[in-house]
Amino acid sequence: MFKKILIANRGEIALRVIRTCREMGIKTVAVYSTADKDSLHVKFADEAVCIGKPQSSESYLNIAHIMAAAEITNADAIHPGYGFLAENSKFAQICLDHGIKFIGPTPDMINSMGDKITAKETMIRSGVPVVPGGEGLIQSLDHAKGLAVEVGYPIILKATAGGGGKGMRVVWSEDEMEKNYNNAKVEALASFKNDGIYMEKFVEEPRHIEIQVAGDQYGNVCHLSERDCSIQRRHQKLVEESPSPFMTDDLRQRMGDAAIKAASAINYESVGTIEFLVDKHRNFYFMEMNTRIQVEHCVTEEVVNYDLIKEQIKIAAGERISGANYLPEMHAIECRINAEDPYNDFRPSPGKITVLHQPGGHGIRIDSHVYAGYTIPPYYDSMIAKIIAVARTRNEAIDTMHRALSEYVIEGVKTTIPFHLQLMKDERFRSGDFNTKFLESFKLL
């Protein structure tokens, strides 16, 4: 087992990893930018090293600074968390070259799923259903127009190196193609330094359902059931839950089998997530694989009683997994609390938290790195907390969540708490009748 792990991340995920390491008797190193000098992960780690200025490019994305921090503290492993360098194969390779264990998959595994075209081709060979679309990258506007006629409108353009909704455009007719094609390429280049675009059939009224998987270095792969991530705004998840209210036993079996096929196709080791689109007829299609721990991993942990961070570290240290699949024993819902103003187009609201009261009680878990007096910097993602409610049934979990949200007090900045409070009372949401377009018709009162 590792003696010391450096966490190459910030905020609640860094704190989450530190807590698990402490339980396992592993020393930790926090890295931080000058903007994060007062963050809790810096205070809770055994050691802390400043790695640069507030801008991510000069700190959390600066591989040289992170590796230097690992070397001067004698860390024997690096946990990347999510975001930043978590799916950067170059970083994983540099760790490998320097004899420092990257807690995650190998560089080749990251590459095989990081490029969406390569991943899709791998899934087709493995017999995993994929969304109909063109083969390879779009070469020109004329190519895009011709291919769209073959696939059939509506179609969606996606950045091959993309994620988080960047470089993605839905096109309903040929009249819209030129503008959307050009905008997708420009955004993809700005976001990923790669303007490669591919095309898929746009699945209408879809659910976004993902399967949590785990694999070890000995070829064992299992799944830990599903999470429904359909409550989204501009492709950004706001609420996740498990099990999905749309799921049936048969669909769970088929999607679980497909997820295992997908992970096995690249001999996957570590924890990861296979993301699917599911249409209203419960046909499902592979969308992408996230080769890292995800923000919403807590939902899975609560319904199957399984510490995914601990398992990730054990796998990296060479331990075997049982290979047994896990099914939900409870129902859990997670709301992302963002420092954003839901009444002003969800604009970020950085600043100083003057008052903070976090709820508790039976069935409530909060993962957060903020405290009263903490100043939320403007340089990073606006998520400041995750609140998870767990109960025996979905309705009970929703009621527990609403009660907890009504107790949550954060003053000094705007947050998404009012949005979540209203959502928990919405009859369509409570009935489970929603898809990824739900928020387009949801009106915040």
Mean pLDDT: 96
The biggest sheet amounts to: 8 strands, antiparallel
Strand order of the largest sheet: 13-12-9-10-11-14-21-19
Contiguous low-pLDDT stretches (5 residues minimum) are: none
**Strand count:** 22
Number of helices: 14
CATH class of the largest domain: Alpha Beta
Give the total of domains: 3
Structural class: alpha+beta
Which fold does the CATH topology of the largest domain refer to? D-amino Acid Aminotransferase, Chain A, domain 1
Tell me, what's the shape?
A: globular
How far apart the termini lie comes to 52 Å
Query: What is the alpha-carbon Rg in Å?
Result: 21 Å
Please explain how this structure is put together:
- The chain has about 450 residues and is of the alpha+beta class.
- The chain has three domains: about 5-105, Rossmann fold, CATH 3.40.50.20; about 130-200, ATP-grasp fold, A domain (Dna Ligase, domain 1); about 205-440, ATP-grasp fold, B domain (D-amino Acid Aminotransferase, Chain A, domain 1, 2-Layer Sandwich).
- About 35% of the residues lie in helices and about 25% in strands.
- An eight-stranded antiparallel β-sheet has the order 13-12-9-10-11-14-21-19, with helices on both faces. The chain has a five-stranded parallel β-sheet with strand order 3-2-1-4-5.
- The longest helix is centred in the middle third of the chain and has 17 residues, at about 250-265.
- The protein starts with a strand and ends in a 14-residue tail after the last helix.
- The model has no long low-confidence stretch (mean pLDDT about 95).
